[in-house]
Amino acid sequence: MTEYPLVQIARKIGVDIAGPNADAVDRDSRFPIEAITALKEAGLLSAYVPTALGGAGASMTELCQICEVLGQHCTATAMVFAMHQIQVVTLVRHAMDSDWYRDYLTRLVKHQYLIASVTSEVGVGGEMRKSTCAVELEGERFKLVKDATTISYGAQADDLLVTARRNPHASNNDQVLVLVSKDEYSLEQKGVWNTMGMRGTCSPPFLLTATGAADRVMSVPFADMSSQTVVPVSHLVWVHLWLGNVTAAVNKAGAFVRHQARANPGTTPPTALRLAEVTVKLQNLSAVIRDALGEYETLVAGASVDKLSSIAYAFKINNLKVDVSSKLPVIVTEALLICGIMGYKNDSKFAMSRHLRDAHSSALMVGNDRILATNANLLMVLKEY
Question: Which pLDDT score is estimated for 127?
Fold first, then answer.
């Protein structure tokens, strides 16, 4: 299969820059500045922006493949790229009728702004579709204060996309999305990011205070953006970068088995059977992910808004995330067992520690229990699965 040019660029960045810095990023819990700078220089942060606005007009398939190849080298780099692209896709899909946002997207192409998302908040229990904070309009300006439990790469971002109640009198699920620029907000860091895995995403809690022109408040309800774009796109880019992570682990296991075979010519190492078993799981996982991406691309191409917003599709895309994230640590653990002590040692070229720790983050990033609880409620009205 021919690889897209943008994916080839990302692969080279992964090999030359993201990979060589991944251990330091993980060890020091620092932002992967070298790789993100390279992605900016290559113009990949605006890959999804339509060609009419100066972007590359990339497809979701291209974005997902970029996430996958970056994930093979540094999962944190891939996650930062993925989360940024969720914001870009949301703007392209839902803000193109705004002159201000169209102009913003052209500036994004030129300046390669890094956009972070601010959906979490103290007091809502991790529920993205609820907000406590509200947009307060004062003439042609607004102000907004949000106590966020986490903002991934918040200190490194240029701009933020923030969820909030439409106004102080709105219910907690009557939300809008607002873009605030670097010179219009302040962040007060309220904690540290010292985690088991995904350490390079740099996601501590912050108190956000922002102001801006009222036309930054997007007109489309966030509920529509969430069901049609934010949730499915998030799950799709995430599962692809996670696929990249476990692929790298299995590739290391394969290299270890070949190393054993070379040490004893004419024999098949016992670990080869374990490798054959784990590649079945990897291949099946990949097939499920590709099918889900293909279905989403078909629905978007057909402008099937009703299907994207349907209970049946929400149930299916939620199950994708739960299913994939539950299998990732199993695959990496099997790769670790193939490599044995050489996979357990952090100073080995077969080291599995980072892959395993990052794999475990997948079940916690929007917790699987929360997603299953949502699906349990959907099952009360969904009659066909």
Answer: 87
Identity of the amino acid at 103: D
Helices (H), the chain: 5-13, 19-28, 33-41, 60-71, 75-94, 99-111, 222-225, 231-263, 271-301, 305-308, 311-339, 341-344, 353-361, 368-378
CA distance 372 to 318: 8
Q: What is the DSSP letter of 163?
A: E
> What is the Cβ-side half-sphere exposure of residue 140, based on CA atoms within 13 angstroms?
1
Task: Please tell me whether residues 237 and 321 are part of one structural domain.
Answer: yes
Do 145 and 198 share a domain, yes or no? yes
Which residues, at least 6 apart from 342, have a Cβ–Cβ distance to it below 8 Å? 256, 348, 350, 351
Place of tokens 């109640």: 165
The torsion of the CA quartet 84, 88, 93, 96, rounded to 10 degrees, works out to 160
Question: What is the number of other CB atoms lying within 10 angstroms of the CB of residue 161?
Answer: 23
Q: Is the dihedral of CA 99, 103, 104, 108 positive or negative?
A: positive
- Of 175, 199, 216, the domain-final residue: 216
What length is written for the chain?
A: 385
In this predicted structure, what is the pLDDT of residue 1? 58
In a domain, 66, yes or no: yes
Question: Two tokens at 38?
Answer: 């390279």
8 Å CB contact between 49 and 225:
no
Residue-wise burial string across 89-112, b where 16 or more C-beta atoms lie within 10 A, e elsewhere? bbbbbbbeebeebbebbeebbeeb
DSSP label at residue 134: B
C-alpha–C-alpha distance, residues 172 and 215, integer Å = 22
Residue 344: count of CB within 10 angstroms of its CB: 14
Residues 355 and 288 both lie in one domain = yes
Backbone angles phi, psi at 198, to 5 degrees: 50, 40
- pLDDT < 50: residue spans in the chain: none
